[in-house]
Amino acid sequence: MILPISVNQAIDDLVVLDGQEVIVQGILHFDFEEVALYHFPTAQRRAAYDSSIWISTGTGSLGFNEEACKRLHGKRVTIEGRLLKPAPDLGGCGHMSLWPAELLARTLEPA
User: Fold this and answer.
1) What domains lie within the chain, and their CATH numbers?
2) Quick one: pLDDT at residue 61?
């Protein structure tokens, strides 16, 4: 059984966790050009995007249920998926490579 970890812990352990299945808890942001999970509690957040992970569903026919994600925007969620470090030539993940990691999500549920 995989235990949930925080966003900061996932980022701090990215070298070890890269490519691994993880369960991460945090605050969902579901906006145009910002689909990300932010660290909770907010008092422990680091500067800018350093306490957040870009969320994706990969390629293919499956994707986010946008209405459900909009309802969960700003709320605590638990996401299970594969944690990925940035491609070496990009230096970051997501829109404009702003995020330090990516979570290829399989499940997204209220925490």
Assistant:
1) 5-110 (2.40.50)
2) 60
d(CA 77, CA 109): 6
For the stretch 40-69, pLDDT in tens is: 999 999 999 999 999 998 776 677 888 999
What are the tokens at 62? 């499956």
Compute CA distances 90 → 74, 75, 99, 101, whole Å. Answer: 28, 29, 11, 11
| 110 within 8 A of 85, measured Cβ to Cβ | no
> How far, in Å, CA of 8 to CA of 44, rounded?
9
User: What are the start-end ranges of the E strands in the chain?
Assistant: 5-6, 21-31, 34-38, 52-56, 76-84, 102-110
For residues 104 and 58, the answer to whether their CB atoms sit within 8 Å is yes
